[in-house]
Design brief:
By secondary structure, the protein is an alpha+beta fold. The protein is built from 5 helices and 15 strands. It binds 2-oxoglutaric acid.
Length: 265
Amino acid sequence: MAATVRETYERDGYVVARQVLPADLIAEASAHIDWLQKRHPELRAEQLGHRLMTHDAFWVRLISDSRLLDVAEAFIGPDIALFASHYISKPPFDGQPVLWHQDGSYWPLKPMQVVTLWLAVDDSTPENGCMRVIPRTHGLEIKPHQARQDQPNVLSSSIDDSLVDESKAVDVILEAGDVSIHHPNIIHGSKANRSPKRRAGLTIRYIPTSTRIVTDQPWPSCFLLRGKAVPGVNDYRPWPAFDAATSVPFTGCDAWNQRLAAARA
Ligand SMILES: O=C(O)CCC(=O)C(=O)O
């Protein structure tokens, strides 16, 4: 990846990479969202998170795609694990906003070395509630966040509004298949979707294997994705085999199972 992409990220706290994944794979991710929604009618579509992922072969196939890992590697190095992943799919007309926040305030990571790739499954525009960032706020330390029930919102919380200069906000406009990359300290959020078009994106939080997920319970989406584990830091889950009961069918699912079986033999 060109040095300027990394430099832009270090300067602004975010950067965009265009057309990282092709249309056929994005169509499979879109079908995956529909499949998850049918299986989880109890959840809003903005809340399809990694607790659903442990046995979902397509999800692991998607977030371990080498084109995404190549992007992640440019930011966190060659030894890469997954910490978390969520679809935030804002339905037409009533998609909820994500209030201003810093991701790092929510995460049990030590140290806070992590990069987010936000994969656009749909075109993401100001009309349908694209992500918005306040550039260059990633130098700010992580601030306390507060519960917010005054309006429906995806995180039910936000950073103190007095810390946000909204006049500096930038819309992160993406086409399906593009990826934006952001820092855990940057202030960001998104508006409601009142448009007739869905706005779906997949957040993917990649950590170097030297970052510890500090939790008492086994973490549902702790997968080693590339390179080497650091002994004693995290307990990684086995990659799930494809099973139609726990994953949407996908191109290459038979080959996926053969590869996993060969690796375990
Ligand atoms: O999808 C959105 O609107 C917000 C995403 C976000 O807050 C994140 O990826 O950290």
